[in-house]
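Input sequence (155 aa), recorded before submission:
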Amino acid sequence: MTAPTQYRYSLNFSLGTILLMVILIWMLFSNAHGASNTVSWTVYGICAFLFLSLLTLLVIKRLIPALKGDIALELDTEGISDYIRDISVNWIDIDDISLIPGRSASMLRIDLKWESEYGKQINLPLRWVKGKDAEIYDKVMAYFNPEIPDNTEDN
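Predicted structure, token format:
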């Protein structure tokens, strides 16, 4: 494996998260409008400010990189690089890698041989990475253990 394998940001997950946030803020607005009192509008104002702040952060950190086609995760012969959280780990420093399933997306759990600035264990969420979690894990394991045959297609 000489060419690095690159996975881009997930546009679908970014858009889905934004849609969910808009639906939630709309539900809160309809409740505040129906209640028509000062307390409900105050709660709505505070929540709307938080939602808009999170929405702005989501657009800047996840949606724009997904639209530009930026790389979220890269695998090469040296190691694994997570550009979402700006973490790079060399294969020789890794003790074990496992896939932790989740409801909406899985997570790569990397156990290190030593304590790093991130701790002895690094969790890389795959929700913002475009691709099927199991296929990403198989590709990671093919780089981590080159003697195991790679059953995934090249990206």
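Checked by second reader. The longest helix spans residues 38-68.
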